[in-house]
Amino acid sequence: MDSETQPSPFHIGEQTLQKQAGVREQMEQFGRQVIRDHMPEQHRNFYQQQPFILAGHADADGNPWASLLYGEPGFIHSPDPHRLQINSPVIAGDPLAETLARQPDGVALGLLGIDLASRRRNRLSTVVGRSDQQGMELAVIQAFGNCPQYIQSRPLASPAACPPTPEIKPLQQLDHDAQALIRQADTFFIASSSHNNPLADVQDASQGVDISHRGGQPGFIHIEEHNGQDSLLIPDFAGNSHFNTLGNFLLNPRAGLLFIDFDQGHLLTLTGQAEILDQHPLLAHFNGAERLWRFTLSQGRWLKNALPLRWQAPDYSDNTLLTGSWAEAHARQKAAADQQRWQSFTVVEIEDESERIRSFYLQPQQAYRPQFRAGQFLTFRADIDGQRQQRNYSLSSAMDDAQLRISVKRDQHADGSPGIFSHYLHQQIRPGMKLQARGPAGEFTLQDDARGPLLLLAAGVGITPLLSMVRQLVNTAIAKRRLRPVTLIYSARNAAQRAFTTELAMLSAMAGSEIKVISVLSQPEPELLQGPDYQFQGHIDGPLLHSLGDLHDHQIYLCGPAGFMQHSYDQLRMLGVQDKQIFAESFGPAQLQRCYPNATANASSAPEIDQAQVSIDGTELAWQPGDGSLLELAEAHGFSPEFACRNGQCGSCKASLSQGQVYYPQPPSADVDEQEVLLCCARPASATLTIEL
User: Fold this and answer.
1) Concatenated DSSP letters for 561-609?
2) pTM, 2 dp
3) In whole angstroms, what is the distance from residue 109 CA to residue 574 CA?
4) 299 part of a folded domain
5) Are 266 and 389 in a shared domain?
6) Among candidates 25, 76, 85, 23, which has minimal Cα distance to 46?
7) Based on the structure, what is the number of domains in the chain?
8) Tell me: the pLDDT tens digits for 210-265?
């Protein structure tokens, strides 16, 4: 029987979650290659070198339990690729010992061999062929390796010289010691079963019992009460997409958890109900979590002083450091609620990125920092030369980066006058000073559900939100071990005005061939060489875009000056790219003029009128088309509404609309409901309007 006609290595629960994650076909192909019905030689050698192994089983009542067996290296032996022998008794008081005493053979057993020092692990699905007081012999059903994500490097220390007497203590609820161990845990092990029968169905290799590792930063497990019982709320991070544990939960929502006291040699083993939580108020705020799940305790046991083994302090994995804790999740939830309030940020570092672009690294005054999506901006305000000024500046950092960063170009207007706010930042702001900002805001962000290749087109300081996207993609790829292919084309006048050259090269190197950076200079310095120093001379134009090949499956993001944006958009549309594939953000009031199929305009259906009576905070004003937007009308009559972008993106100028209708020549990207109006881009569409600022 060839691999294509063999049954899937994944059962229906695992397949369901793989479909939901959009990786079903990929995982089926991958699983058939790496999930075997026998142990490769390197796995057999690996198990024989280990001083302990984790085991998962279901007891006579179908309750999953996670266990640990230990011995001198060599206590695990593989006589052939289909068999494994464990020559050590089960720890006294462990539920596995009771199960095997009642049923010495035929019990389904999941095994996890893990070397915490090297972070290597392999897994087995087995059936007990025989067992006695000296150990057991197992028949291998499935064998596969696992990646080292979230495993803290933890070498073995010297064993306890004279370990205290073991103590067995049953639990119906978590006592003080159990809660303390769980709250500080960065590692635990979880057993699950695809059915509630402790005997394996050897006719279906995808069925059985599994045991897996879970890791995170201390504080990643939250203890709470649920329906009057002790419960644990646990994040599920991006993994290998097998969904062995969660797939079992879909079929049999029960779990067994094992916590190890690495300093004292205690074991805490628990069993209870499991529930996957795809919707939870804190899910979006827990860094790295793709979903949450709840464990509700049924019963447990302390096996105190059960292990002679001890471990050194951990070295946290890079993946673990990208995740959060419940304390951080609550802080981020509060930050999200406060994000439209003005906050104080300390400038902790300033760095020149080019001759005209300077980065400002910011530390929020609060204990938490704003949560944002790559591509969003902060709105800043300052009193400059006696007048209140506001501007939006894109974040050039990623959410997972250690600090917030904005990167600001020193503007100069066509008449030679300096940009007020940018020159204030460049000329007056120094490390240690404070800035007032609110946000983040903006809809120019990566689409969460998209998986195809990306094309990012930037000109000048338009690189900043796109750099944030690239940084976030790379950070996420570390956890998910996959990266969407990215082509970034960055246009600047010359190398002196081109920013982030070293940083982009570093990100590209980290991502291997998945991130391609193309530099375009319109007036390169004479000493530069085309090829090593830049790739194209001129501008981002039709021939360059055409050279990229078929773009029908790409998402395309544009950011830069208005002329660059419009030209790039028009060239892409001429190449057959659909409007829905193109996402854009421009700086300043200019809007991208889009070409929609079967439509002549991108506008509200409400008609614009020739004159209107507008009441702003009780003051009656006459409006005519020459007065422009409602923001321009208000400013012309002495009002000073808050604003930033002046093109409907940030929502800073939002006001209450208690009477009348408005018209948007270009639909705003900021959210606005029927009782609100964005002053910067709205015009009257009824004879009377009543607005409260």
Assistant:
1) -HHHHHHHHHHHHHTT--GGGEEEEESSS-------TT-S--S-SSPP-
2) 0.65
3) 60
4) yes
5) no
6) 76
7) 4
8) 999 999 999 999 999 999 999 999 999 988 889 999 999 999 999 999 999 999 99
